[in-house]
Prior knowledge:
Mean pLDDT: 77
Largest sheet: 5 strands, antiparallel
Amino acid sequence: MIxxxxxxxxxxxxxxxxxxxxxxxxxxxxxxxxxxxxxxCELIDSCDFARSYTSGVLSxxxxxxADSEKSRLMDEWExxxxxxxxxxxxxxxxxxxxxxxxxxxxxxxxxxxxxxxKRLQPYFDRADRPRVNxxxxxxxxxxxxRDPNDPLNRRPMTQASDLPRDKQQAAEKITxxxxxxxxxxxxxxxxxxxxxxxxxxxxxxxxxxxxxxIADPDGxxxxxxxxxxxxxxxxxxxxxxxxxxxxxxxxxxxREARVREAGNVYQRGLEIKLAEHQQRYxxxxxxxxxxxxxxxxxxxxxxxxxxxxxxxDTGRDNLVSGNGHHFPPERNGQLQPATGEPESPERCRxxxxxxxxxxxx
Length: 361
């Protein structure tokens, strides 16, 4: 499982809800697991904020998991983002997708605290990513799910889950063709990849450390190609597979330390988020109708021991995402995790809450 937080969040409520369920609410293999789509639309439309909602997906390689585990994961994820808030202080829509041959649990949260009407920001990348990565690590380990940070599970291509279907198919075909040429020895570096794309008649619009963007022939938004073969340091050779296997063995040997550190990071992150929410959204009385979210920081449902201040070593927080084990320097760029969407500079400005979160964390 991998957690992805979408970078979008502005506009009317019909945008994310129609994407998840279809405009006629008849999207194939889409099922509402929790929440009221119409209510979520109303809340998003009522928000007078620059960013009116937060959305994302828990994406699995597995085709399905037990319903009881889905329920538990939804509870844990809401606690991870909204710890310290009661259930009547926020709204969350959950929609299951199965149309890609695997399980996706999609969520949409209106960015409004329901009791006060204040702006609610469930996720701020710079502050919340360590806690989210830690939860992902703990959950994958607990359920034995495919770990995206294991070097053996690195994919030749990853793409945004909200990419239009026609562009997804185009990216998949391009990658399949490049992989075939790589196996034949005709592609051995990123430079070869770029030359091959141009030979297809495609225009490379942008290159970054981890991706290549090609111009849409129809004039739409650029199509970003992201994955191992599109990274700047990619080099194919006879020794690549051996390096990947060795890195994978080292990664799995560090499992106990990685899980222990994830528990520490997650616990500390919950404590900070809890204090922040309770300060910003205080309640004079607790609800008595069963909506209370009874999740104190030391009882997360993840079997995490109570942490002490002495247990926390900020210098090791990056172990949670598997950054503690590397390829040799020339391969190191191929092992970095890709959980979530990074904040753009524009998103990091214009909000007193964002500034305060980053400063406190």
